[in-house]
Fold this protein.
Amino acid sequence: MNAIKRSDIQTGILVKIVLKEDQRSGELTEGIVKDILTKSPKHPHGIKVRLETGEIGRVKEIVE
């Protein structure tokens, strides 16, 4: 799988994230990025973001 880099993510884009409690099931939550929480350019489990709903998780997919 192609890893998503921090530079690929901007606030205001639509993404699918996996929440901490959904990591085992892999269930994805869709939403708009409010804040990018990961400071490093990449992360093996995905860049951590906060959605406009307040949910926090790691980006698995960018919705085009």
Notes: The radius of gyration is 10 Å. The CA atoms of residues 37 and 49 lie 5 Å apart. Strands lie at 14-19, 28-36, 48-51, 56-62. DSSP finds no helices and four strands in the chain.
